[in-house]
UniProtKB/TrEMBL annotation:
<feature type="signal peptide">
    <location>
        <begin position="1"/>
        <end position="24"/>
    </location>
</feature>
<dbReference type="InterPro" id="IPR022603">
    <property type="entry name" value="DUF3152"/>
</dbReference>
<dbReference type="Pfam" id="PF11350">
    <property type="entry name" value="DUF3152"/>
</dbReference>
<feature type="domain" description="DUF3152">
    <location>
        <begin position="52"/>
        <end position="239"/>
    </location>
</feature>
<keyword id="KW-0732">Signal</keyword>
<protein>
    <recommendedName>
        <fullName>DUF3152 domain-containing protein</fullName>
    </recommendedName>
</protein>
Length: 264
């Protein structure tokens, strides 16, 4: 897939926090309807990026990943999403993340049956969030018509754009507002110990932020020893739950919990 670089001055916002998955080369290629293999382990080929190595700022202009992807999931009109990466980044000794790389990782996350696309086989009903028999499927596009865009940006750019919506991302969190998801490059490169592997962190942030776009608010742990909902702010604590990057289990069960009071 080639990269068509387009100059897009950007804005973005709403809140996120934790999530996980890896580079497309490291992630398993799941097949719909096939048995799920064991959960992926941390890849030994992913280098550790130190705090001082994380690029802090870029141009605020974004390059769009070129090409249209396959429809992921079954039935219904797909949610079209566009993938963008900030330009003007001094990567130093860090392996650059291209729009192609970022797009491949997101595509791979959505192709996993445990992602939101799993709802096309297991429709979702969550009464306290007004969700009844819902399902979603996805398709990546590169044009001006899309339903949501997913941007990878430096911490300073994320802070600036999220602050415009009154959100404090503190140089480390991601955010989402309206039709835009902002993913913090620092966390994308480093992950979080609470998430397990870097792959799992990346899947988590994509699934968490897309969950906000789909209308889900933050959720709490449903009980000690249970999997944490992907909509839980797991980086702030697990409250007895087990870390989890996915909306669904391998058996197709939707992982949910009580909504956080006051969130709508």
């Amino acid at each position: 897939m080639s990269i068509r670089v387009r100059q897009i001055a950007g804005m973005c916002v709403l809140t996120t926090l934790l999530s996980a998955c890896g580079t497309a080369a490291d992630l398993p290629r799941w097949q719909w309807g096939a048995p799920s293999p064991e959960a992926p382990q941390a890849s030994p080929t992913v280098p550790i990026v130190e705090d001082h190595e994380v690029p802090k700022s870029g141009s605020g202009i974004f390059a769009v990943a070129d090409g249209t992807g396959e429809v992921i999931g079954r039935g219904g009109e797909p949610i079209t999403f566009r993938v963008e990466v900030e330009t003007g980044i001094d990567w130093g000794d860090v392996e650059p993340v291209t729009p192609d790389d970022f797009a491949d990782t997101i595509d791979t996350v959505f192709k996993d049956p445990r992602s939101w696309a799993g709802s096309t086989q297991h429709p979702v009903t969550v009464p306290d969030q007004g969700v009844t028999n819902a399902s979603w499927r996805f398709r990546r596009v590169d044009g001006e018509v899309y339903k949501v865009r997913v941007r990878l940006a430096t911490p300073n750019t994320v802070d600036q754009q999220c602050a415009a919506a009154g959100l404090d991302t503190e140089g480390k969190y991601s955010c989402r507002y309206n039709d835009t998801i902002m993913v913090n490059l620092g966390r994308w490169l480093q992950g979080l110990p609470e998430s397990g592997s870097l792959d799992e962190y990346r899947a988590s942030v994509i699934n968490h932020e897309m969950g906000h776009f789909l209308g889900f608010v933050h959720q709490k742990c449903s009980g000690s020893g249970n999997l944490a909902p992907v909509m839980m702010q797991q980086s702030m604590g697990l409250d007895g739950c087990l870390p989890n990057a996915w909306p669904f289990t391998e058996e197709g069960e939707f992982v949910t919990g009580p909504r956080v009071p006051g969130e709508y």
